[in-house]
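We close this part of the discussion by returning to an individual protein. The amino acid sequence and the backbone structure tokens for this protein are reproduced below:
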Amino acid sequence: MKADAAGLRRIDRIIWSLIAGVAALDLAGAPLAGFAVAWHSFLAPLCGALGLLTGQHYYSRYREDVRLAGALGTTAQVIAFAAVAAPLSYLAASCAQFPNIDRWLEFADKALGFDWFAVLDWLKAHPETAFGLRIIYSTLMLQVLMVVLVLALTGRIAELRAFVISFMVMTLAVIALSTPWPAQGPWVVHHLVGKDGLVPPASAGAWPLMAGLRDGTVRTLMAAGADGVITFPSLHTALAITVTAALWPIRTLRWFMIPLNALMMASIPIEGSHYLVDMLSGGAVALAAHGFARWLTARHAAPFAATDEPRQATPATVPFR
């Protein structure tokens, strides 16, 4: 997709309106759920986003560089959205009136023939592989940054906006689904930490937070320093699929992203403490969000032939609606 300048502005207005809407939900939900807002934790994201937007304005108006302006503006959108989406996920996780559904998720895994403990035992027997998967599990946000930079520097400005919309819609869908159907994950449900010398997974730092949100001992909303508190659906899976889809048109990166995120998928059950059903549902959410984002962006863009060559985004001759 190649968007004209007016189309990109319309897409940006949609993105910033959605961010503002999520922030409004945070502000409305905090007092209703008895949360205090750690305003200082929003300072770094706010300053970072404002600085990036200043750079976007400069490279849009005074020293025209479509690619750099796109990279700066999109990064500001990702930072701002993450800062308001994390508190919303805390509010969702605090809904203690909904019972955990872990036993149903385990039942579904067994029906599908997936043995979570067999995977854990295999990784216990292969610690080098387990260590490598832990590192790969932690690369997801670096991959998000890579998508922003690559799409911007290759002039894929409309695709870049579609990626941001997909990221936002997917995250909000996962938060919405996790509210009535909360889960803790296999590690927590089976009290595995400390048994048989097991090394806690990468997601272990969020467990006390998850418990505190559910029992009411944690009642602070924060942006910087927030941790992931959603088990079902798997946001990690959804993001891995989304970044792969975003870079799929670039052949030189496609064959790097496929094995990388295949290994990411292999790491998620243990390092993320997820059921297979979490991952399948996260994948479904990602595909739906990706399709919606492409459709929405195409309303303000014109199709063009895929190419791996860098190009400047120029106004479309015939806008596609």
